[in-house]
Design goal:
Elements: E1 2-6, E2 16-20, E3 36-41, E4 46-51, H1 62-68
Antiparallel strand pairs: 1-2, 3-4
Length: about 80
Amino acid sequence: MLVTIPDLRSPKTARTARVEIADACPRCDGPRGEILRTVSYDGSVRLHVDGWANPCGHLDDYEAVAHEAGLFDQQPHVDDGF
């Protein structure tokens, strides 16, 4: 499934990352929940991102999702306007 999460490679910036993750819970292999738009707030930056509640009750935090997607293996995309 394709989801938008905070881009954790660039802390304290207003960037998101679009990543591909499995549609199954990584802990029990049950289905992940329906994707809903939500706001992520870390105390300084608000971002419009995707969120979901897994029917199994296991929580997916954005850091675990970023690792699952291999986000930390990629360079951040910087839109310089050119």
